[in-house]
Write a structure and sequence with these properties.
388 residues, alpha+beta, Alpha-Beta Plaits, 4-stranded antiparallel beta sheet, 23% strand, binds adenosine-5'-diphosphate, binds magnesium ion
Length: 388
């Protein structure tokens, strides 16, 4: 079976799909925990994609099947979709595509049923946004099947709504925007306040560089509660400073802002968000002038801030940064929400292999499960796959 051929769909539904759509996972180069503070992020799309083969149905029935999940076909009626729980188990995977259909309909778009088959090469739960890839591929499929012609950023916003309000995960908009809007050879500089964006050249091979993703394979349980606490902390910090969001605190006035915050728990949260926004802008300036290697120390500074100020790292992520740095990497940081998941490492091509090995060895010495290391090649965003 070739990827995107529709063979998986045929095996489940006994007919050919109307088309196949693909949406990538993403890795965030820099700009962590800034997206719910109206700040800046800079993700890139991975070559790993979620592919949705789909056929329109005009009877209002939605059938969902994933090659990557147990449980066979989930059958629903689009008229019955209501937030949080229509799939029965709110945590079930079918809530993601069903939520997209709900969000499209809630926004007034006339979409009905479909048969969907999902197959993904995006690792799930590794902080690489397999959930956004699934939503975005579904949204692109429905936009085409029902002739909606919605632009990619609009589909991304609806996917975020699906994840927030239907699935019940309070994520920002970065993941869906990255999956929908990234282009090959670029990172996406995104202002999460108004969704203005620019493709920033990230040609690693020209500079003799490699960007590695290290999936630690761990997911520490405290992640969800910690995320909610930090979100609330950032809102409290913004309120204490009388700004709409922490994005409105200029880097040049950080010292004065921190003096106005009496709560010792809020102060480092504010410092992380303000300095992280500054680091994104700094990385963009460096990439714009082709100084790609120089973003290494910016990445590492970002990790220190997430570890020490925002307190969302974990021993495994810290070890990736420490071991890769000791082995000659140019820079490294945890990526995604934290408490496990993945890290990114920037290295010279000649050193990449030994850096990967050093991380593996350090994990073995620490008694951690072997991490998965792969190269992140800045890839294309979502679209329809041409089938043979
Ligand atoms: P991440 O987005 O970082 O991979 P999440 O916890 O946000 O992690 O999303 C993972 C969830 O998305 C899975 O538990 C599953 O419910 C759903 N999912 C992602 N990809 C697939 C797939 N190919 N098939 C079925 N469900 C998927
Ligand atoms: Mg996700």
């Amino acid at each position: 079976m070739t990827a995107g051929s529709g063979d998986g769909f045929r095996a489940v539904y006994g007919a050919a799909p109307d088309g196949v759509w693909a949406a990538p996972g993403r890795v965030n180069l820099i700009g962590e925990h800034t997206d719910y503070n109206d700040g800046f992020v800079m993700p890139l799309a991975l070559p790993h994609t979620c592919r949705v083969s789909a056929a329109r149905r005009d009877d209002g029935v939605l059938r969902l099947h994933s090659a990557d999940a147990a449980g066979g076909v989930t059958e629903l009626r689009v008229d019955d979709l209501t937030p949080l729980g229509v799939v029965g188990d709110r945590g079930g995977w079918a809530a993601y595509p069903a939520g997209v259909v709900w969000a499209l309909r809630a926004a007034g778009h006339r979409v009905g049923g479909a048969d969907l088959h999902v197959e993904s090469s995006v690792p799930t739960g590794a902080g690489l946004s397999s959930s956004a890839a699934l939503e975005v591929a579904t949204a692109f499929a429905f936009s085409d099947l029902y002739g909606l012609g919605l632009p990619a950023p609009r589909l991304a916003q609806l996917c975020r709504r699906a994840e927030n309000d239907f699935v019940g995960v309070p994520c920002g908009v970065m993941d869906q925007m990255a999956s929908a809007c990234c282009t090959a050879g670029h990172a996406l500089h995104l202002d999460t306040r108004d969704l203005t964006r620019r493709q920033v050249p990230l040609d690693l091979s020209v500079g003799g560089l490699r960007l590695l993703v290290v999936d630690t394979g761990v997911k520490h349980a405290l992640g969800d509660g910690a995320y909610a606490e930090r979100r609330a902390g950032c809102e409290a910090g913004a309120a204490a400073l009388g700004v709409r969001a922490l994005r409105d605190v200029p880097y040049g006035r950080l010292g004065a802002a921190l003096e106005r915050i009496s709560d010792p728990w809020l102060r480092p949260l504010v410092r992380h968000v303000v300095t992280e926004n500054q680091r994104v802008q700094q990385a963009v300036r460096l990439l714009d002038v082709g100084e790609t290697a120089a973003i290494g120390p910016v990445l590492t500074a970002g990790h220190a801030s997430l570890r020490d100020d925002f307190a969302v790292s974990c021993p495994e992520l810290d070890l990736v940064v420490e071991a890769s740095g000791a082995a000659g990497a140019l820079g490294a940081r945890m990526t995604g929400g934290g408490f496990g998941g993945s890290a990114v490492v920037l290295a010279r091509a000649a050193a990449a292999e030994s850096v990967g090995k050093a991380v593996n060895d350090a994990f073995a010495v620490a008694g951690y499960r072997a991490p998965r290391v792969f190269e992140a090649v800045p890839s294309a965003g979502a679209g329809r796959v041409t089938t043979a």
